[in-house]
């Protein structure tokens, strides 16, 4: 049996008919004036899941999170958390906590006071509060910084304080709005793994908003790809990448070649697509299509093979080497077909030396297997 | 290839240019800094310190029937030494020995303090409302707050006489709606002084508070709510402490000038409330006793320097 992205996941309550969702958005719409920020959206999230909302800036991710936190009221629809309808419950009574994009640390309070703030609202005993503060400080490795004020911390440390503060009350759901957005690349990568570990330890349900596909892929159990207030696809990272349901999803997550065309024949397990570029693509059929239907064929660059000599068989394209970029693990080629279209090919550098000798303006041949890409209808 | 060039360029900068530039930088910046600090310093010295020292000197002189009405005058350099020996602390002793001055000082400080509190109570909600208004409105609201400055201060205080006097607008209004049957006596009472000061100094309290509230990150109160704090509690634990710099600035901007206020108590307060500004005026123009008037003014400055220094410390810490 084959698996997508060579990962077997044991945590998959969304395919288990016996498990029921912990959190549900039911036909939620949010309008600001005439503008529809969230458009009739339904979504189920399970307990202990690390869920990512991924989409371009302005697609309504933060708005969705803010409705769950209680800062915005849905124009219509319901939000149900652990069996309870959230309508009419003010933010300060909801069992969720949010880590803000700007961190929103209280500048006049020390790190410890910031973290204790939420606990004090619960009328927790003094000793218990300080125990809990110590505990979360340890979790984010900031034990030595308890007495500092936020402006005496680095960006990465502030991020951890914000995280610690939102975790301190042990919320049922932790909301993270672009939690790593303000960190530099290296720190972001380190923090990603820490965040994943933390979620694993705590078993808290995490909902993270991000516009960074790599971040979503690294961290999430499932990703919802959003655009213009709608959810286009909800699936585990490997499925989003290897089996995108639409052009937008394929294009937004990772690099992709898209060939538009018309179905010329669909027989047995195969379709033949006549592309607008003039060549035919023979592909495995995994969606229902009819002859004459307009479809797109999406193909990841690393699923193409490149050669300097002519290749025979179906699914071969020929063109000129237009651009080469060496990234270390992969070398990326841009091949310009005679129609002018650019095809992206990523060659994995599996060995230190390669017999392939190509330079700018050489003729190159590109081929792919029938199951390398995906036929999408939207 | 690109990488081969870069290290070379960095190298060159390190070996020569940067060091020299830094040396030159310090030199020219030092001069520049001295000029930048020096100009306002000379300005303050010429327009504040010198006149103040003249006032101090007059306060140490003796009244005389002359022009100017005090001795010594230091006109002729040859009499400077004998002039210096004539300076005396008599005027300060006089001020200390007469209850009138003590009462005027305490009354001034009490009225200034009370009206500062009143102004704060009105200005804070005003500033809060302005800061929470839609961003597009805010500029207009700020303009409305400073609008009174387009009219002369004196005229605005006179206008209050027309409003507050027994047959004035306020009493006419209250009587016509039947709330009172006889005119209220407000003019020439401390109440009128409070009204005048609160009205006149409201913008000085409102604007700094507005500035500190407006630049506060809105997500802070959201974070407080998210962590379980109801709105009123969030106000006292987050919003108010963070607006304190504005509150303190506003209080000083009201308290200090209000303590020395002359026009408002003179026009609205009548003759029975003798504040220190009025006292200076009386000594100066009615008694023609410039030395005592100067001594009263110098003592007022000395009293107010304390809060000013606290204010400066506070501002420095915020900055
Ligand atoms: N309070 C508001 N009033 C008007 N428009 C808003 C408001 N909040 C968000 N929007 C609009 O809704 C859209 C979605 O915003 P948001 O959810 O913040 O997007 P993102 O996916 O980048 O987090 C944006 O176009 C934004 O301009
Ligand atoms: Mg956002």
From TrEMBL, chain A:
Gene Ontology molecular function, alphabetical: ATP binding
A Pfam family of this chain: TOBE_2
Matches recorded under InterPro entries: AAA+_ATPase, ABC_SmlMolc_Importer, ABC_transporter-like_ATP-bd, ABC_transporter-like_CS, Mo/tungstate-bd_C_term_dom, P-loop_NTPase, PotA-like, Transp-assoc_OB_typ2
Broad class of enzyme this protein falls into: translocase
EC number, as in UniProt: 7.6.2.11
ABC transporter domain ranges (all copies): 23-253
Statement: the UniProt record of this protein carries the keyword tRNA-binding: no
Alphabetically ordered keywords of this record: ATP-binding, Cell inner membrane, Cell membrane, Membrane, Nucleotide-binding, Translocase, Transport
Catalytic activity: ATP + H2O + polyamine-[polyamine-binding protein]Side 1 = ADP + phosphate + polyamineSide 2 + [polyamine-binding protein]Side 1
Keyword hit for Translocase: yes
SMART domains (alphabetical): AAA (SM00382)
UniProt-listed NCBIfam families: potA
Protein family (similarity comment): Belongs to the ABC transporter superfamily. Spermidine/putrescine importer (TC 3.A.1.11.1) family.
PANTHER family according to UniProt: PUTRESCINE TRANSPORT ATP-BINDING PROTEIN POTG, SPERMIDINE/PUTRESCINE IMPORT ATP-BINDING PROTEIN POTA
Function: Part of the ABC transporter complex PotABCD involved in spermidine/putrescine import. Responsible for energy coupling to the transport system.
Subunit structure comment from the entry: The complex is composed of two ATP-binding proteins (PotA), two transmembrane proteins (PotB and PotC) and a solute-binding protein (PotD).
Protein name: Spermidine/putrescine import ATP-binding protein PotA
Organism: Jiella pelagia
Organism taxonomic ancestry: Bacteria, Pseudomonadati, Pseudomonadota, Alphaproteobacteria, Hyphomicrobiales
């Amino acid at each position: 049996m084959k698996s997508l992205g060579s990962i077997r996941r044991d945590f998959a309550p969304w395919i288990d008919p016996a498990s029921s969702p912990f959190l549900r958005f039911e036909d939620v719409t949010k309008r600001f004036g005439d503008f529809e920020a969230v458009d009739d959206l339904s979504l189920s999230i399970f307990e202990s899941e690390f869920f990512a909302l991924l989409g371009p800036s302005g697609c309504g991710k933060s708005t969705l999170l803010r409705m769950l936190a209680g800062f915005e009221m849905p124009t219509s629809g319901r939000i149900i958390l652990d069996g309870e309808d959230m309508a009419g419950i003010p933010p300060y009574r909801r069992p969720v906590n949010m880590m803000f994009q700007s961190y929103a640390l209280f500048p006049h309070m020390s790190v410890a006071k910031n973290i204790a703030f939420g606990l004090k609202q619960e009328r927790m005993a003094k000793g218990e509060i300080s125990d809990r503060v110590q505990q979360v400080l340890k979790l984010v490795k900031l034990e030595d910084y308890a007495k500092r004020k936020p402006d005496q911390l680095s960006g990465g440390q502030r991020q951890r304080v914000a995280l610690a503060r939102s975790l301190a009350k042990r919320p049922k759901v932790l909301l993270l709005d672009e939690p790593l957005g303000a960190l530099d690349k290296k720190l972001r990568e380190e923090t990603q793994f820490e965040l994943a570990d933390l979620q694993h330890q705590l078993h808290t349900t995490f909902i993270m908003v991000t516009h960074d596909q790599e971040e979503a892929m690294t961290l999430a159990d499932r990703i919802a790809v959003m655009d213009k207030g709608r959810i286009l696809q909800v699936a585990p990272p490997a499925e989003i990448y290897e089996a995108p349901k639409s052009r937008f999803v394929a294009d937004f997550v990772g690099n992709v070649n898209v060939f538009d065309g018309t179905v010329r024949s669909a027989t047995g397990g195969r379709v033949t697509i006549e592309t607008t570029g003039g060549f035919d693509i023979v592909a495995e059929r995994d969606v229902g299509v009819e002859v004459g239907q307009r479809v797109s064929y999406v193909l990841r660059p690393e699923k193409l093979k490149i050669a300097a000599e002519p290749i025979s068989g179906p699914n071969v394209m020929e063109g000129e080497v237009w651009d080469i970029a060496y990234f270390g693990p992969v070398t990326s080629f841009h091949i310009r077909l005679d129609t002018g279209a650019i095809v992206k090919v990523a060659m994995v550098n599996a060995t230190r030396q390669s017999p392939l000798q190509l330079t700018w303006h050489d003729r190159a041949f590109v081929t792919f297997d029938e199951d390398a890409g995906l036929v999408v209808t939207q | 290839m690109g990488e081969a060039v870069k290290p070379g360029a960095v190298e060159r900068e390190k070996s020569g240019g940067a060091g020299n530039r830094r040396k030159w930088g310090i030199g020219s910046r030092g001069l520049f800094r001295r000029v930048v600090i020096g100009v306002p310093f000379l300005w303050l010295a010429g327009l504040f310190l010198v006149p103040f020292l003249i006032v101090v000197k007059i306060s140490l002189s003796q009244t005389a029937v002359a022009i100017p009405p005090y001795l010594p005058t230091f006109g002729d350099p040859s009499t400077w030494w004998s002039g210096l020996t004539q300076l005396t602390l008599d005027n300060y002793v006089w001020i200390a020995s007469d209850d009138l001055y003590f009462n005027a000082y305490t009354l001034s400080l009490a009225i200034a303090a009370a009206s500062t509190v009143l102004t704060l109570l009105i200005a804070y909600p005003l500033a809060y409302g302005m800061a929470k208004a839609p961003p597009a409105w805010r500029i207009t609201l700020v303009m409305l707050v400073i609008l009174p400055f387009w009219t002369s201060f004196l005229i605005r205080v006179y206008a209050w006489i027309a409003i507050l006097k027994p047959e004035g607008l306020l009493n006419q209004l209250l009587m016509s709606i039947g709330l009172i049957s006889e005119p209220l006596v407000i003019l020439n009472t401390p109440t009128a002084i409070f009204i005048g000061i609160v009205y006149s100094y409201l913008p000085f309290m409102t604007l700094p508070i507005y500035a500190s509230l407006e630049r506060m990150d809105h997500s802070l109160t959201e974070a407080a709510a998210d962590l379980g704090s109801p709105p009123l509690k969030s106000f006292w634990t987050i919003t108010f402490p963070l607006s304190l710099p504005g509150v303190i600035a506003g209080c000083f901007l009201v308290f200090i000038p209000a303590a020395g206020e002359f026009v408002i108590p003179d026009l609205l307060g009548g003759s029975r409330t003798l504040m220190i500004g009025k006292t200076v005026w009386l000594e100066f123009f009615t008694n023609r006793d410039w030395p005592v008037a100067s001594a009263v003014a110098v003592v007022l400055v000395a009293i107010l320097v304390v809060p000013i220094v606290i204010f400066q410390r506070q501002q420095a810490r915020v900055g």
